[in-house]
Amino acid sequence: ARHARVFGLLASSGSDYHGPGESWVDLGGMPPLPAGVAPVWQDW
Description:
elongated; 44 residues; little secondary structure; 14% helix; 1 helix
């Protein structure tokens, strides 16, 4: 997130789902982007 803010980059995220009980996040569940970081989809 710091690099995105410093260099004016856009951010994205993904769940990196591998299977039930194998990931730190549920399928389709993602934490929000950090504050002050613009998502790549903001201009779509």
